Amino acid sequence: MPADAHRTKAAPDADPASPLTERQEARRRRILEACARLASRGGFDAVQMREVAESSQVALGTLYRYFPSKVHLLVATMQDQLEHLHATLRKKPPAGDTAAERVAGTLMRAFRAMQRDPLLADAMVRALTFADRGVSAEVEQVFRRTTAIILDATDLTDPTPEQLSAVRVIGHTWHSTLITWLSGRASIAQVGVDIETACRLIDLTPPPDEPADRPDDPA
Which of 33, 6, 7, 10 is nearest to 137 (CA)? Predict the structure, then answer.
């Protein structure tokens, strides 16, 4: 693994909690786009911080202030790709009579988006698996966005703790199927079956105010 993939110490003046100015946001956008282009052409190994800096026309030191390592950058790129996907899904919500059908349709659309650019998908997923505690904030954003995409598809306005747990399991399953497909250990058909199976958890969980075991139900 390239040396800069392990560089996870944040730059002294990096403050991810501070809102970016319009100029900073534009710079960050160029960096993410440059990263995606390089990954699309050559996968994980093609994303080198110096090349990203040159392609996005920012100084190398500036790049490290935004993203302390290659892993930070690729995980942020995955977050960015999921944001774009989420916006697309909101414009054209998934069809389906049940929450399980809608979620499965949504995740398969997300999977097909990854499938269209396998080198980029592989680079982002590899970064996600390499991420250590130093990248926990960025990884959390990826899983939060995945959860938001799934929740939107369910149409649940007030999900129960059980339903939220099912959503988390479904999200973990989707990320796991990406890994198994990218590593050649699962076919697209198998991915579809696994996602549909996991999505049935949504329909198996009780809705609000309807507990699974009612005292007055007959034995």
Answer: 10
Residue type, 58: V
For the chain, how many residues are written? Answer: 219
Provide the percentage of residues in the chain whose pLDDT is more than 90.
77
- Long-range pairs for 165-173: beta carbons < 8 A, 24 or more residues apart: 165/205, 166/201, 166/202, 166/204, 166/205, 167/202, 169/198, 169/201, 170/103, 170/107, 170/195, 170/198, 170/199, 170/201, 170/202, 171/143, 171/146, 171/147, 173/198
Report the SS3 class of residue 138: helix
Q: What does pTM read for this prediction?
A: 0.82
For 126-148, the pLDDT digits (tens) are: 999 999 999 999 999 999 999 99
Q: How far apart are CA 8 and CA 156, in angstroms?
A: 38
Res. 7: pLDDT tops 60 = no
**Which residue in 110, 113, 124, 116 sits closest to 46, CA to CA?**
124
Cα separation of 2 and 54, whole Å?
18
| Pair of tokens at residue 17 | 């909690």
Burial class (CB in 10 A: 0-12, 13-18, 19+), 179: middle
Residue 9 scores a pLDDT above 50: no
Burial class, 8, CB count within 10 angstroms (exposed 0-12 / middle 13-18 / buried 19+): middle
